[in-house]
Amino acid sequence: EADIYQTPRYLVIGTGKKITLECSQTMGHDKMYWYQQDPGMELHLIHYSYGVNSTEKGDLSSESTVSRIRTEHFPLTLESARPSHTSQYLCASTRMGNTEAFFGQGTRLTVV
Amino acid sequence: QKEVEQDPGPLSVPEGAIVSLNCTYSNSAFQYFMWYRQYSRKGPELLMYTYSSGNKEDGRFTAQVDKSSKYISLFIRDSQPSDSATYLCAMSNEKLTFGTGTRLTIIP
Q1: Which chain A residues are closer than 8 Å to B103 by Cβ?
Q2: Nearest to B98 among A2, A42, A105 (CB)
């Protein structure tokens, strides 16, 4: 059982609102990732981090930002949500060396 | 060309059949190979993990890696309706790269 948690599981919010998606892991993993996935579609990497104070943009351009102040915590923020941000957001973590990645259950975001 | 290619399917097979899911890759630096299962509206769940050529078996699942051909497979024996899901291959060296996923349906 993977110890990585995402909150909220579901979020419906109005256009222009600021939102933060939470991701926490208790496995002590250094690397953490955010993926965006539309229904039935592939995973797209939007952000990753190799450790505290390390953040990098992924393959898919995203208007979201991330921070990594603590090893176990990797929140994603959208300053002004838009309907185009509607998607599922998945957080994952791995040990250094990129072996098994463990995923959270995801946050399904709907912007109306 | 993508580093990892995976047939998106969909693939439908009758219950009890042997299922073969495959991925090819172009980056010879990949050292670790994984298979994930993703049910609808859930996060991917790690099924199998291997780092060498050859076969690895876990219950009804067998992961096969052929580094010389840059080809990996996942076999599911005695397939069950509960195996219906999207299966993603993943590979890593310094960077974790996923296939697009194959949508599998097991027909009772």
Answers
A1: 40
A2: A42
